[in-house]
Predict the 3D structure of the following.
Amino acid sequence: MTHQERRLVIVNGPSRFDLMVALFKRDEEVLFTLDSMVSEEHLTQFQVSVTLNGVSIEDGSRERWLISGFYTEPEKPAHREINWTRFEGFYDSRTRKGWLKNVPLQKAE
């Protein structure tokens, strides 16, 4: 599995209402807390700021979602250029858990 294909585990995230607001309100971001494996013995958590581009229903419960958009790590030092990473993923707004998968940006031809 390459770095691009690695799944990031969501351990906490927004409510269903906050997810909806982030999708429909311009420039609204939500925070997801992710697990990150630092070493085989050490797991750490970090937050990412997410801008949603799409949400679709994963099943009939209206609690499980397929999500897409861009994220950045808000805790990184301020730079002139913020690096956003495109993602696709799954999120359960009842348990507030899921996963994100980085998606490479397509180059313009």
Notes: The mean pLDDT is 85. The longest strand covers residues 43-57.
